[in-house]
Structures are given as C-alpha cells and as structure tokens.
Write a structure and sequence with these properties.
single chain; 265 residues; alpha/beta; Rossmann fold; six-stranded mixed beta sheet; four-stranded antiparallel beta sheet; 10 strands; globular; binds adenosine-5'-triphosphate; binds magnesium ion
Length: 265
C-alpha cells in the first residue's frame, strides 16, 4: 500500500493522441501531500498531457492512475460520487486560459464550480466575492471573460479553481506570458497556497524561480518519459542533463542567484 501521505500515484502511463502521436511513454510518479512538485522538459515532451491525466480529463491507454486511493478511469469517473469527490479535491489551471473560460461573465465563470458541487446560489455568490477580493479582481466581476487580457484571464482561471478550495492544484506554466508584477504575484500566491498545506504540481520552463515554487523536480526527456528526479539545487548543478533534455542551450548562463534559496523572497 502507498504511504499515507501519498495522494496521487501514476504507474507506467502511456498516452498517444489519436493513437499516433506519443505524449507519455511509460511515466510513473507519486505526488505526496503538501509537496511542491515541478514538471520540467522541452516543448512537446508531455508535461501538459500528464497534467490532463492527473486532472482526470484524459485517461491513459496503458498504465494506471490512482488518486486518494481510488483508481481514476473513464468508468470510475462516470460514478457521480467519485467524480464529484475527485473534482472537489483537484483543480487545474490550464496553460491556455482561453480553453478554460466559457461563461458570459466573470462572476458566472467563477460560480460554475461551486454550483456544480451543489452549493446554493447565495453561498456560491459569497464564495465568488471572497475569491474576487482575494485575487484583487473585483472590478472584473461583470466583464466577459473572453474579452479580457491574457493575464486577466489567467487570474479569472485561477479564481475559478481556488473558489472550490481543492487540496491539489495543478498549474500548467502558470507564469508564462504574465508581466513581471503579475508573475511575482502568482509566485507569492503559489507559495501561500503551499504554506497552508496545498499540494502543488506545476509544469514550468523557468529554472530561475524553481527553488521558490518546487521542492522536487521531475524532468522529462524528449522521449516522453521521466529521466531524472532532483531537488531544484541538485538539478541546477546538472548542466549536462539540462542540456540533454533541452532545458538550457550551450550558451545559457545559470546565474548563481538561481541556485540559492531566496531570503524573504
Ligand atoms: N490535441 C493533440 N492532438 C495531437 N497531438 C497532441 C495534442 N496535444 C498534444 N499533442 C502532442 O503530444 C505531445 C506532448 O504534448 P504536451 O502538450 O503534453 O507537451 P508539453 O510538454 O506540455 O509541451 P510545451 O512545453 O510546449 O507546453 C507533443 O508531441 C504534442 O504534439
Ligand atoms: Mg504544455
């Protein structure tokens, strides 16, 4: 049996889109309660696909995925109790926010999850107000999500995930395409979520900020499988590996600052 702190277990996952385009080829990992896990690797190596499996959006063609002790399959997710329980415990902020926002207003967008989970309108509205205030986007409440800027959309997507207070948060390249202030804000948010005990799994290419939002890194090779596991500090010391998996190129300078845990952010 897995260790008590083990929340998610993937064993030998295989996934190919349209049965032709390989994305995961023998991926095994565990995610433990309260950890900050980073997924790294070159474009197309399978990070987003793995996150989709972890969120129960797609199902492996071979191999198994267990979450909170139950196997996640297309069949088990048809059970309403299983899928509602799973959905309330796992939240996913997509790489592309356009694929995530679909409601006529931001308020309705964020209320969607709580209403799905059976909250009444009044409770849901209160939750929405709270999370809008927490993320500092109250002024966007009545806007149309797809008309917002990229960073604003990302905040709305984050709000729509945080509003149901999931235990496990999956972020796909959360800081990509955000301005420096918003990036900083998001890193702080992720640190705060980790501090209150949330489990964070995120895909990233950003080696500079790794030590802040990861305590363990899994590195994908371009062969769609995990080729290394390391702490951020260990990983940054393995220049050959970083070159081989296309996370740096030969002219990349890894500044010492990237290796040293920041003092007070
Ligand atoms: N909808 C799709 N249809 C067909 N192939 C796909 C689809 N989505 C992804 N793939 C393929 O699956 C492989 C893994 O893609 P994935 O999006 O998981 O990579 P990634 O590691 O997230 O890359 P990036 O760093 O660019 O976000 C790639 O070869 C990609 O072309
Ligand atoms: Mg991706």
């Amino acid at each position: 049996m897995p260790h008590d702190d083990t929340l998610l277990v993937c064993e030998d996952l295989h996934y190919a889109y349209l049965e032709r385009f390989p994305a995961l080829d023998g991926v095994s990992l565990t995610v433990r309660r309260g950890e900050k896990l980073a997924l790294l690797g070159a474009n197309g190596c399978g990070k987003s696909t793995l996150l989709k499996v972890l969120d129960g959006l797609i199902f492996p063609q071979r191999g198994t995925y267990h979450a909170f002790g139950a196997q996640v399959t297309e069949d088990t997710m048809e059970d309403e109790q299983m899928s509602t329980g799973f959905r309330s415990r796992v939240g996913f902020v997509f790489q592309n926010s356009d694929a995530q926002v679909f409601s006529p207003t931001v308020r309705e967008e964020i209320a969607f999850g709580p209403l799905q989970m059976g909250m009444n309108r009044e409770q849901a509205a209160q939750r929405v107000d709270d999370v809008l205030a927490m993320l500092g986007i109250t002024e966007l409440a009545d806007r149309t999500p797809f008309q917002l800027s990229g960073g604003q959309k990302k905040k709305v997507a984050i709000a729509s995930v945080l509003v149901t207070n999931p235990d496990v948060l999956l972020f796909d390249e959360p800081t990509a395409a955000l301005d420096p202030r918003t990036q900083q804000w998001l890193m702080e948010l992720i640190e705060q979520l980790a501090d209150v005990g949330k489990t964070i799994v995120h895909a990233t290419h950003d080696l500079d900020t790794l030590h802040r939002i990861a305590d363990r890194c899994l590195v994908f090779g371009e062969n769609h499988t995990i080729v290394a596991e390391a702490t951020p500090t260990e990983l940054l010391d393995r220049r050959d590996l970083l070159l081989e998996v296309n996370l740096i190129h030969e002219h990349t300078l890894l500044f010492p600052a990237a290796r040293v845990p920041s003092v007070g952010g």
